[in-house]
Amino acid sequence: MQKNNTQTKRMTSIARKLHRSLIRKKISMYTGFDFLLFVLLLVGWLASLEYHTFGKFILSYNRYFHIPSGSTHWFRDLVYIVSDQKEKILLKVPLADLIIVLCITTGILFLLQLLFICFSYAKESKKIRRILAPINEIALKADELSRMALSGDKYQQIEDAISHLHPEEAELLSFGDSDLQGIEAAMNNLLLRMRDSQRQQARFVNDASHELRTPIAVIQGYANMLSRWGKDDEKVLDESITAIQNESDHMKHLVDQLLFLARGDSGKTQLSLELVSLNDLMNEIYEESLMIDENHLYRFRPGDSVCQVQADPALLKQAVRILVDNSAKYTPEGAEILLRTGQTDEGKPYLEVQDSGIGMSPKDVSHMFERFYRSDEARSYQGTGLGLSIARWIIDRHNGRFEILSRTELGTRIRIILP
Predict the structure, then answer these.
(1) What is the DSSP annotation of 402-417?
(2) Do 237 and 223 form a contact (C-beta atoms < 8 A)?
(3) 210 pLDDT band (50/70/90 cuts)?
(4) Transmembrane ranges (predicted)?
């Protein structure tokens, strides 16, 4: 029993080391990205200011940062200077306020990134332990290991190989021992799966940062415009306020979606199951669509039989609402959007949304539920690329599945089949 406890402690220590290494790498990656974003925003703003001042960007001008001699507050007195070849100052820009805005902007982004790490901490830890669990089980099965005649040296060989493994590198375990080939293959398979999961999470964070960068840049641009001349120009003031409000709403919507997925992945979103009538649920969505969207022709065809399932009505409605909103977004004005309920040939209840919009190619259909994925045709429409990911998470938790039929320029039919 004492030996088994020792093996378990060793596996726990390895899991902690792997998790700490992944977190350190994430924080380092986020810090580098935010610093690069800070520099790019600063350079872009200064280049834009020169272009608006001189009418074009002149490479031959001298550019430098300057702090007046004898200054006791270098940050407050820091200026950006553009001069010609005769050292005549053509543009002098104080940078203190701009740097403060950029620091706040990148600081908010960094806090969001840390928030994502916090939300995913428990899930990552659980996943690493689950991945390493078979190794721990192998180590604890003394009867199976005894048949392999493993000596204490071979146990030490396994532990040393795992301890010296760097999770961020592509290397695999190699014991160089024929007795350990089975364990070696199993552990390498687990390592590959763990690294693939880490790459997916890193891509998710990079995509989220990219999506947040656009509204932040727009808000910053209009804020700078207001600071320069918008206070006295009513037209510029109204335009800036409208743009800032729109981008703030877009950012709030994106952050809400990110938090929903983060809470779902960490197991904090629980379903409140009750008996739900699919006809009543779809009819409610139909009536709401008629009220909030007058640009499309909505039709509802309820199923002949009474379709009732055990489900979370709020989450199930959210999933269908996502499908309806997508149909409205990609369907021309005046075109029809059909809502339907019914039962499959196998007797399983379903909810269905069908439109006559832009449709999707088979390649796009295979990726449509991936987070932040948007087809080339859909990129001209406003969106975050997270709605369908949320819908899939909800339906997966209900043990349901999707059936998609889509043709480019003809439209899309998405059916949610529930157990």
Answers:
(1) EEEEEETTTEEEEEEE
(2) no
(3) low
(4) 27-47, 98-122
pLDDT at 125 over 90: no
**What pLDDT, on a 0 to 100 scale, did the predictor assign at position 336?**
93
Beta-carbon contacts of 214 under 8 Å, excluding residues fewer than 6 positions away, are: none
Its sign, for the CA torsion 30, 36, 40, 43, is positive
Structure tokens, 225: 């415009």
Q: What tokens does 33 get? A: 């990205």
Q: In order of start, what are the domains of the chain with their CATH numbers?
A: 2-40+101-265 (no CATH), 274-417 (3.30.565.10)
| Structure tokens given for 372 | 């932040």
Displacement of CA 96 from its chain's centroid (Å): 33
What stretch of H or E contains 133?
helix 96-140
Q: What is the pLDDT of residue 248?
A: 76
DSSP strand E in 201-345: where?
274-277, 297-301, 308-311, 336-343
More confident residue, 50 or 194: 50
For the question of whether the overall pTM of this predicted structure is more than 0.70, the answer is no
